Amino acid sequence: MLHQPAFLDVESSLSGRRWVGPSIELDRAAEALTQATRLPRPVAQVLARRGIAADEADGFLNPALRDLLPDPRSLRDMEKAATRLIQAVQRKERIAVFADYDVDGGTSAAQLIVWLRHFGRPATLYVPDRIDEGYGPNAPAMADLAAAHDLIICVDCGTLSHDALAAATAAEVIVLDHHLGGETLPPALAVVNPNRQDESGDLAHLCAAAVVFLCLVEANRQLRVSGQSGPDLMRFLDLVALATVADVAPLIGVNRAFVRQGLKVMARRDRPGLVALGDCARMDTAPAAYHLGYVLGPRVNAGGRVGQADLGARLLSTDNPHEAQALAERLEGFNTERREIEAAVRAAAMTQAEERGLDAPLVWAAGNGWHPGVVGIVASRLKETAGRPAIVIGVEDGIGKGSGRSVSGIDLGSAIQRLASEGLLIKGGGHKMAAGLTVAEDQIDAAMARLSELLARQGAGALGPADLRLDGMLMPGAANVDLVEMLENAGPYGAGASGPRFAFGDCAILFAKRVGESHLKITFGDGLGARLDAIAFSAFDGPLGPALLDHGGKRFHLAGRLDINTWQGRQSVQLRLEDAALAT
């Protein structure tokens, strides 16, 4: 196989990466798409990379939920779960929702609570404390809930909780989850999970909120058959979209439609909790996938990380604007606290990981007293820096609680489950891109060595953190609002569907200024009259910021992603600058 030449001859950029452009085959496919569809070449490049043929382009750019929504009954136990849910409503039974403490759990719980409210049925919300109880159902909590309720619905958890569910003898239990299943199912009336071992895997990309949504679709269908009606489920798609992006579910198939449609629903500002949260975060534009992952998601998560675990689900399910405002302000405060804790853990973890080497199959760090609420975020940062799967473990009283994040093509969840089955972990599980574990302090080194070995077999050690993949080259004058809107139409972008990244060749830095602690703002041009603004976040954490700030008139190739910047009602294009190289 021939070695592809470096794009713009950039063998080593300012951040040490080799730039790699589209292959000759991709270029040809993009050219054919451009001729057949009359789409701009940059949009055709994105579609070609996703493997979209000319006759599929229109359907891809305008994904319709009705065309992509799977039949809920294709999932095992779904009809049984929906029937039991309707029975509980009709019999006026006491219902409890046991939810995980993250965004996926909170949005899953909120959907059920709002759906039940339509029928005048209250539900008890139970979210375990991350530190005191840990992830998933536990026997004492389930026994207590079962004693006071007829039906318990576990969302975004429960698939591996055999002992905990066995303790709920006084009530019936339904599990609506997406985490990897084991060889046997827990004792429950229904376990609906696209990642059960006896499922086909066709819907393995769904997050838990999407599984809950499908359950409600099936419940509404059963109600219609009997001449009754349920609430309008299209209004729930803002919650499904938020969970899909925040839980890093791959943006393929129906997930694309969930996010696209959900963003439209969110833009109507009908849900008091999301309105209040967006206002607290000073969101002044229509929501995009970026806001779900980086603005709203972290704030919903903040309660489960460093505050009160049920705040996110309560915020998302309330119909009272005053309560929503109060909850959003509390979450905003917790999010600020979370950032401060995260910064300290991140610095220590990065130092440790660098000492071990960022080119190993697994990048990991462990430390005493590291807050368990931030280890997952820090693992994400390590993963982004190294381009490798990463684990970060906080140790307390001889027990380590860790969180891991993976990269595309490496299944971290199954490797961690294997580790647990081999006895190196107290417990562990998750899915391909994210996982959690509990491990004895004296077993951490052995467990991480074994995990590194398992991930190396999947090819994690051969991943190239040095490669920066580009979709092509643009002139500053071509980067206009219309083009960026068309590129957005080829989204949403995220896990399994990385956003387009373009290079701007041989540009002069016309303005450069440090912003905040470590960001850089620049304006650049190619000498033909057009100028483009750019922002490089955390540029001064590495060599990018200093080199561009003190450019000394030198010209650079610049690479990044295009955004629309809205300021005082006016729209302009801005480059989110990720890398640069001296133009030679």
UniProtKB/TrEMBL annotation:
Gene3D superfamilies per record: 3.10.310.30, 3.90.1640.30
UniProt entry keywords in alphabetical sequence: Exonuclease, Hydrolase, Nuclease
InterPro entries assigned: DDH_dom, DHH_sf, DHHA1_dom, RecJ, RecJ_OB, SSDNA_exonuclease_RecJ
Keyword flag Protein biosynthesis: no
Gene Ontology terms: biological process: DNA recombination; DNA repair
All residue ranges annotated as the RecJ OB domain in the record: 471-579
Domain DHHA1 positions: 364-456
Keyword Hydrolase (UniProt): yes
MF terms in GO: 5'-3' exonuclease activity; nucleic acid binding
Residue ranges of the TM segments: none
Domain (DDH) ranges: 94-244
NCBIfam families assigned: recJ
Family membership: Belongs to the RecJ family.
Protein name: Single-stranded-DNA-specific exonuclease RecJ
Organism name: Aliishimia ponticola
High-level lineage: Bacteria, Pseudomonadati, Pseudomonadota, Alphaproteobacteria, Rhodobacterales
